Amino acid sequence: MTPQATRLHITFEDNTLLPLLYGEHDSNLARIEHQLGVSLASRGNTVTIIGVADAAEAARTALAALWERVRKGLVLGAPDIDAAVRLSRDSGAEPDADLAQLTRPENTIVTRKRAIAPRTPGQARYIETLRAYPLVLAIGPAGTGKTYLAVAQAVSMLARGQVDRIILSRPAVEAGERLGFLPGDMREKVDPYLRPLYDALYDMLPGEQVARHIESGMIEIAPLAFMRGRTLANAYVILDEAQNTTTMQMRMFLTRMGENSRMVVTGDISQVDLPAGQRSGLVDALEVLDNIQEVGTVTFSHLDVVRHALVTRIVRAYEAQDKRRGQGT
Q1: Which terminal Cβ of the chain has fewer Cβ within 10 Å, N or C?
Q2: Is the pLDDT of residue 265 over 70?
Q3: Given pLDDT bands bounded at 50, 70 and 90, which one contains residue 279?
Q4: 70, 52 contact by CB (below 8 A)
Q5: 151-154: which pairs have CB atoms within 8 A and are 24 or more residues apart?
Q6: What b/e sequence results for 202-212 when a residue is b if at least 16 CB atoms lie within 10 Å of its CB, and e otherwise?
Q7: In 3-state terms, what secondary structure has residue 114?
Q8: 264 pLDDT more than 80
Q9: What's the pLDDT band for 137 if we cut at 50, 70, 90?
Q10: In angstroms, rounded to a whole number, what is the distance separating the alpha carbons of residues 329 and 313?
């Protein structure tokens, strides 16, 4: 028996903002229709939603959340549409309360090139944690914004003079941190491993400013091995892909923290590239630091993935497989 269709209406008060909400040629509405299996018809400042009850209500909730983002001057892209749909459909009993977190002014990070607002409640909690704790461990799958938001917060604090420099690091585990066999000078050897960090910086600062800050040392991007023996004061320090550190490397990194510094450690403990039998430094740190009040921990799930919608389904499939294997099935 086919479920009976429900008809809902949602009205927006400012016609001038509707093109930003609807998208070019109503592309944002079409994206919601495709993902939820509903029909959306716009007439003036009212959208009529037709579909089965749950899907129609999810569309209404998603549109309301996206409208709030537009009202606050945020630009909508496909990941924003996908995140709002996913959250309104999958977040449980109170999607409106969850979505309200995303447009709170205090959860927006302002950088030179853009204002960055969270797209999921998990990202909102992460931003709150980044502001509250000197050391943050962020764990979760690819595409959840772990590194991107940490870099945004670092850039914002640097612009406000709250730190003097930014230090971004990753373990070059694919080369065993023995980079001599690669062609080129040291920068050419390590750049392929650090490219995601450069990409995040160029998304938040003008290119010439990034180059100038790197040249002056105000921004430093280096493999983890370069951190040994240093004390990092007045700095915002981010260790990315930390699941690929050894326990000794992680201990070395965490003890580099100096006066007035902030540290963020990000990683996905389901994607450890260390040799078989070698314990991940990130897994170890989660246990060792568990009872230290000054350490904030944020765990992301597939609901926080803000890349292509297919990535969410891929992450969910792997999580289900990991659960089955853990249960011995």
Answers
A1: N
A2: yes
A3: very high
A4: no
A5: 151/197, 151/200, 151/201, 151/204, 151/238, 152/109, 152/111, 152/116, 152/200, 152/204, 153/109, 153/127, 153/236, 153/264, 154/236, 154/238, 154/262, 154/264
A6: ebbbeeebbee
A7: coil
A8: yes
A9: very high
A10: 21
Q: What token pair was written down for 33?
A: 């229709």
- Both tokens of 138, joined, read 């962020």
As a whole number of angstroms, the distance between CA 109 and CA 115 comes to 6
137 HSE (CA, 13 A, CB side): 24
Alpha-carbon distances, residue 249 vs 167, 197, 257 (angstroms): 16, 20, 14
Distances (CA, A) of 46 to 43, 73, 244: 5, 20, 51
Tokens for 124? 């909102």
Q: Which residues contact 25 (CB under 8 A, 6 or more apart)?
A: none
Q: Give residue 147's region: left, alpha or beta (phi > 0; psi -120 to 50).
A: alpha
Burial class (CB in 10 A: 0-12, 13-18, 19+), 311: middle
Residue whose tokens read 């009202």: 71
Q: 195: how many CB neighbours lie within 10 A of its CB? A: 12
Q: Residue 297 has which token pair? A: 């921990």
Tokens of 58: 């999810």
- Is residue 142 within 8 A of residue 307, CB to CB? The reply is yes
| Positive or negative torsion for Cα 215, 216, 220, 222 | positive
Q: Which residues contact 92 (CB under 8 A, 6 or more apart)?
A: 98
User: What's this model's pTM, rounded to 2 decimal places?
Assistant: 0.76
Residue 176 has pLDDT above 50, yes or no: no
